[in-house]
Design goal:
2 domains; 7-stranded mixed β-sheet; binds phenylalanine; 337 residues; alpha+beta
């Protein structure tokens, strides 16, 4: 018996299995149901009891050797397979998040301040007719005030189509379609025919506000602007109103906010005045209310309008307007929520 075991061991010691087919026939020959090992185990039953321990160990050893050979062949075969180019264990590539445009950040901040005091947001078309951009807003035909706005005309033969010069046009649309009380702000892009420089651009963004109800007074306007200035520029911000002129408001005013850099002492940002101009405003002219179908004897209201770039410049101390539309990511990624 021992002889036969050793003979099998000698036999397999010279065997090299090179592929799966060889491994399979090797397995069938030695480890299969009718294989060599099986018949050795059969014969093992006839081994005298006193030899069983030693021969049994020997037999198990052979079995182990046979299994090892097959296992080694399998590993060999696997190693020969072409390696996958994917390494699924590598950590993924992280995507870097973009940042919001500084004008978007400022617009969002302004709209959220006004939404806390009940202002909704309304939008309208950028191509406007003469009525919504001018006539309804009390600009008589040929009135010199139209020149204030350096309009880009598209086709004056079709309703005086032009690119809107302010978002007051949206407020006309709101007044024509909604009943007071009206409390809304209209953010949006506006266009003016100006040479592009650090201080002017042919398009910019505005947020205009409108409040119409019974008994709305100039004091309400002043309080609203004061609330906005303190919310946006900080609780120590002060405002002052200077008389001004707009065709659609009477009386009209321009609003300055105290310079947050020098606290009003004077610096080069506020040109040593201590004040920074931020918006135009006034009581809605009764002619405008009537033109939009709101009874000016029953209702009154105020309106205001500000340039988003102007407010962003003050907030971020950016002194060249052109940067906002150049899409230079080195500029844009500096602004965060
Ligand atoms: N529409 C004016 C402008 O574009 C701003 C403004 C709005 C002024 C409302 C007064 C009231 O300059």
């Amino acid at each position: 018996m021992r002889e036969r075991i050793e003979q099998v061991q000698r036999e397999i010691s010279g065997i090299v299995i090179t592929d799966n087919t060889e491994a399979e026939s090797f397995r069938i020959k030695y480890l299969g149901a009718k294989g060599v090992l099986k018949s050795l185990y059969q014969d093992f039953k006839t081994v005298p009891n006193e030899e069983k321990k030693v021969i049994g160990q020997h037999l198990n050893e052979l079995k182990q050797q046979l299994e090892n050979l097959i296992e080694a062949a399998k590993l060999n075969e696997q190693a020969k397979q072409p390696k996958s180019l994917l390494d699924l264990t590598r950590p993924g590539r992280s995507t870097s998040l973009g940042s919001l445009h500084p004008l978007t950040l400022v617009r969002n901040e302004i709209t959220s301040i006004f939404s806390t005091i009940g202002f909704s947001v309304s939008e309208g078309p950028e191509i406007e007719d003469d009525w919504h951009n001018f006539s309804a807003l009390n600009f008589p035909p040929d009135h010199p005030a139209r020149d204030m706005q350096d309009t880009f005309f598209i086709d004056s033969s079709i309703d005086g189509l032009s690119l809107r010069t302010h978002t007051s046009s949206v407020q006309v649309r709101v007044m024509e379609t909604q009943k007071p009380p009206i409390r809304t702000i209209s953010p949006g892009r506006v266009y003016r025919n100006e040479a592009i420089s650090a201080r002017a651009h042919c398009f910019f963004h505005q947020i205009e506000g409108l409040y119409i109800d019974k008994n709305v007074s100039f004091a309400d306007l002043k309080q609203t602007i004061d609330f906005f200035a303190k919310s946006f520029f900080g609780s120590s911000a002060k405002i002052r109103l200077r008389p001004s002129y707009f065709p659609f408001t009477e009386p009209s005013a321009e609003v300055d906010v105290s310079c947050s850099l020098c606290q009003g002492d004077g610096c080069n940002v506020c040109k040593y005045t201590g004040w920074l101009e931020i918006l135009g405003c006034g009581m809605v002219d009764p002619n405008v209310l009537d033109a939009c179908g709101i009874d000016s004897k029953e209702y009154s209201g105020f309106a205001f309008g500000m340039g988003v770039e102007r407010i962003a410049q003050l907030k971020y101390r950016v002194n060249d307007l052109r940067l906002y539309s150049e899409n230079d990511v080195r500029f844009l990624t500096q602004f965060h929520f």
